[in-house]
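For reproducibility, we list the full input for the flavin-adenine dinucleotide complex.
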Amino acid sequence: MSESRDCDVVIVGAGVAGAILAWRLGSMGVKVIVLEAGPGRQGSDARDRYIDNFKVSGNPYPLRPAALKNYDLFTNTSNYYQQEPQPRPKQGPMGAVTDADDPEDPFGEYNIISSAVSRKGDWFQTNYERQAGGASWHWLGNAIRLLPTDFKLRSTYDPRPPDGSRAYDWPISYDDLEPWYGKAEQTIGVAGTGEIMGAWRSTPYPMPPIPQSYSDLKMCAATAGVKFVDRWTDVSYPLVPQPSPQGRNSVDGYNGRPICHGSSSCIPCCPIQAKYDATQHVAMAEETGNVEFRGQSVAYQVLADTTQQNLPITGIAYRRWEADAYGNISSTPGVVTGRIYVLASHAVENAKLLLSSPCGSITVANQSGQVGRNLADHPVALVYARADRPMYPYRGPVSTSGVETLRDGTFRKYRGAGRMEVGNDGWLWPDGDPYFTPANLVGQGLWGPELAQAVSDKLTHQTRIGCFVEQLPNPDMRVTLSGVLDVLGIPMPRLTYGIDVYGRRALSANVAAMVKIFRGMVARPVVQYNYAEFLDSSGTVLPDVARNAGVEGTPNIFVREGWFGAGHIMGTHRMGSDPATSVVNAEQRAHGHSNLYMLGSGSWPSYGTANPSLTIAALALRTAETISKELTR
Ligand SMILES: Cc1cc2nc3c(=O)[nH]c(=O)nc-3n(C[C@H](O)[C@H](O)[C@H](O)COP(=O)(O)OP(=O)(O)OC[C@H]3O[C@@H](n4cnc5c(N)ncnc54)[C@H](O)[C@@H]3O)c2cc1C
Ligand code: SF4
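The corresponding predicted structure, in tokenized form, follows.
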């Protein structure tokens, strides 16, 4: 390390990506400083507070001022970023049942966006978190690999939907990443079994699978032999749920964590850390003696030396903040220097940081103009049912099984893939249970044994599935700088987002498949849009009258109108071999700045349907090796 530098490697952000990188480099003797916007390492009381906050206030995020503004007690994405909802493009007739034989929209009857909702426009519905450990505090724990075709969507299927979007191939293949997937599974501690959809494995899972829940097994029995016919291609697919690979312990003591106790509190947070979260690697990185975490330190600019041809990065400017007893914030500026710089502050914040960093006539790493663009999520549709027999939800991890078969197929030429997550959490997600129903029953005057019986009858029969679908990259969906400043005087990110035709088609087809599963679980299926009225993102009640016209009998399968964010933010500094169309190369190194790297799902050029963290970890481990080699040159 040069005398004039603070360390070898500066990392911004201590989530899954930053903490694992810091730990790997620290273990190799590399001197690392990590800037972390939120509080640094916290004790178990923070875990308890986090859970209490969620359960009491409905707010999954603890109150903290780490450069966020206007915090209120309820989850409000405007605290994280600014946005205006985009007008929704038309996708078949809205609010009416469409012709199932329409070649442009063969699953149109399962369009989940009615005219009432479509007027509201598309909001980005995913947020993130600022504290050491990042979003892994509240991740569910699904540790899923991308499929080989996810890396080559364009060259395999070349989808050309009518909105003009096109797919992009990754500059690496599944085979390139496979060894790193194995290492990531060891590092995180993944319990699983079997190969999924051609994602071949050279190493076994480090732990045996978490058992499928009682309700999963009931669903497996109901779906045995059931086929879903994709009407885009007339190909049929089995729908049996299989055990999901999970970053939670099926074995006591693996990576120092206890075995999962099945308490179903994985979101907001596992109270006993049976589920992996990145605070583990924050602690392990510190224990190497080579890594310093600077908490409450918000990076706001990447400094580049434009006098040199290779535009080296020379420092990261940050503000260290303090809060007094009254919550007033003060901050002091600082600059940290190293040989190599890594942005691991997640897709929105990485992009915002780059866009805030001048570099000659452009901003850092933005010679392609792609920084901040191609913002994507895995939009989620929910279908839920009241089964004829008890399913006994609210036990075990929030999800233990998934339907993987619709993650790949020739239909991807026309519409996106989808991964179904089978829930053990009853109607929590679509309807706010187990709180909503008991409160309603009390409101109806029930009490004592009568109330207990009614609660038991209603809650034990609940079941739900969610599908996470694939979008195509769209340069108009993007992060830019807002004119609004946060509490530290730093511009907030401004988001522009919408779901493309490919993603909307995927939602409709996957809703049809989920309905098909539930039709096999009730004797007299009656499908209705929404169980109850719901609030849209601006708080307006939207009774779904038009969709339910003509529904006869007692509804027992419910299609949740509208869609949710998955928590999977992707695409804002995409990877590619061509500096004219991408921001980082296959090593996640910025084109044009040899000592700058970007980690996380912002690097993904296309999105598949795997929950992102395992791939984020695999890429971080791969980049750790690149950086360590670079430092020894
Ligand atoms: C409800 C929910 C459930 C999820 N479930 C799953 C799942 O089952 N499986 C899965 O694979 N994924 C899941 N995810 C997604 C997963 O949590 C994220 O993809 C992953 O945690 C991202 O890791 P990261 O390290 O890239 O970013 P983050 O975890 O967001 O970490 C970024 C870090 O950078 C810090 N930071 C931000 N800005 C700055 C700045 N300016 N200066 C300094 N520091 C900064 C933050 O404080 C944070 O510590 C879920 C997400 C949500 C919301
Ligand atoms: S089920 Fe309970 S113990 Fe198991 S990972 Fe989830 S919260 Fe932790």
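The longest helix spans residues 613-632. DSSP finds 14 helices and 24 strands in the chain. Both points were considered when choosing residues for closer inspection.
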